[in-house]
Amino acid sequence: MTTPLVEMRNISKRFGGVQAVDEVSVDLYPGEVVGLLGHNGAGKSTLIKTLAGAYPCDGGEIYVNGERAVIETPRDARKFGIETIYQTLALADNLDAPANLFLGRELMTAFGTLDDDAMEHQARAVLHRLNPNFTNIKDPVKNMSGGQRQSVAIARAILFNAKILIMDEPTAALGPQETAMVADLIQQLKKDGIGIFLISHDLHDVFDLSDRVSVMKNGRLVGTRKTSSVTKDEVLGMIILGKLPGEETPEDMAARH
Amino acid sequence: MASDADVNAPLGTAPRLSAMEQFSRLTGLDTRLLAMLGALIAIWIILNLMTGGIFLTPRNLYNLAVQSSVVGVMATGMVLVIVARHIDLSVGSVLGFLGMCIAFLQVEVFPLGAAWNWPLTILLGVFLGVLVGIWQGSWVAFGGVPAFVVTLGGLLMFRGAAFMITDGRTVAPLDPTYQLLGGGIDGSIGATASWTLGLIAVAAVAFFSLKARAKRARYGFPMKPLWAELAMIAVWSFLIIGFVLVMNAYTKPRSDIPRGIPVPVLIMLTVVIVMAFLSRFTKFGRYVFAMGGNPEAAALSGINVKRTTVMIFVVMGVLCAVAAVITTARLNAGTNSMGTLAELNVIAAAVIGGTSLAGGIGTIPGAILGAVIMQSLDNGMVLLGVSSAVRQIVIGLVLVAAVWFDVVYNRGRR
Ligand SMILES: Nc1ncnc2c1ncn2[C@@H]1O[C@H](COP(=O)(O)OP(=O)(O)O)[C@@H](O)[C@H]1O
Ligand SMILES: [Mg+2]
After folding, report:
1. Quick check: A132 contacting B, CB < 8 Å?
2. What is the pTM assigned to this prediction?
3. What ipTM, to 2 d.p.?
4. What is the CA radius of gyration of chain B?
């Protein structure tokens, strides 16, 4: 077996009194899509934010390509080829699309000034690929539609040759046509050997796209299954009841006694 | 629904745009800036009528330009502070403190008359401005204390410090060469130099506009029509040449020697160019705007938000030092009341010039426009013999009205 691209071991994160993530372990192989499922508040976003460097984790370890990776800032994550599409999109609303795409890694001219034209050129190419109707890319993103904003966030993640892509509810603001486009994109990225964590609270969004699903509930990992070996109903059971198929929950046992 | 055709169509024919928005697209000027420009022209015409034609004389416009320079210099820094969702209430006191330091060093520490004296005091003043910026910026960035509180403390502390340097005594007179930096009778560059600079400026505007256009063309980007580009160059050239003509039309006393551009105005224009460059063409400027637009997104993009915050206050401190140089040179003295209440004019100038208190939005030229609007009102009221009490009331009302306009304008856009 090949080494996993990413291995997160026993990750924990607490916010004040809330144990948002509790000893969760997940992994991801090259060219694989792992669906991360669970209700709102299950801790999915918090878990992947520790991988993205948005917060340091309280406990646990991250391995990239089998080697221990210390990820404390978003810059660290980028160094490991980890790119993130945040659920909140994390766009600066007052800036235009190229400025957002290159935020934090601007292209510079030979004189050490921002090369806005070069950035616009690349931005046009990548955004056009995602969304051929995208023409107002020089507007502040606050003037854009939800779908366009989401396209900007996606474009930012794929522009820099990510090896590991985190997509936190990437189709939340998209219509059916754009959602299909994202599905195509995911297939294409898979072929390029990129590993993708695809996060959703809705099973139907990820079931067809993912090779494995990991389900979280109340900050804990319920379990990870090959998508081909489970049914949607079984996964739904994991999400709702927090139990693996064929396993008994404490409530079941209590009910029997 | 936008379509591909829109890109290639001339921008002027884009559907569903008001006349103002079309104009704004063609000129590349923000509609809000255009509104302020309209307000300035209206104020000038009205004040000119009310003063029986005194307001728009070369003499008064020259004075207006000099008077605007101190507030203008600091307002360019306040734009960055407010864009990043902070505020700086201490700029007036910092001006007073740095001015007193400069004057005290120049008169009572270093030998007056030594050629190196005044340049060294300026350098030390700027250095102290950097330290003040690091001090205040660090409290905000690393201490997590809101800038409002840090700089309110600064307002008191630096005013007190300004007093302590000489126990409230005024320090005068300053070096005669240094005094030129404040304007005054000899503090302008004369007709020839003014023309030379004016023509260089016109050439630079034309060169950079056309160069930027050529670069966009090379990439095949949509562009505004050539006539609009040329019209903008013409308007700028007209403004620059008009400015030189007016400054040259004001002569030295009992002679017909033209004064030309006053040195403090030259300093302000230099500051404007540097600050506009900083905010538009450097990573620092981009990060300031990103932090103002969405602080969380800025941090997630790997921007060092804390360091950038400190930098903003350092820039503000340096600009306070520049303003302190102009002020002391103009007064030919250091007094401990210098810059009192200047923070209000500076903040008002930035806000009137289109800087949004909600953060993320503001321009350097806008702040200068705001400074000139404020100073025009003040200057006009002085000409009309309005008492200083009434002037304060009017300026206060203008500040509230400007922020109200900001709120209404932003509400209309959401
Ligand atoms: N920055 C934060 N501060 C405090 N609590 C948080 C923060 N982020 C998330 N939480 C809490 O952590 C839990 C998990 O949230 P989250 O990871 O966003 O869930 P999910 O993405 O699965 O919907 C929730 O109870 C949420 O309220
Ligand atoms: Mg979430």
Report:
1. yes
2. 0.92
3. 0.91
4. 22
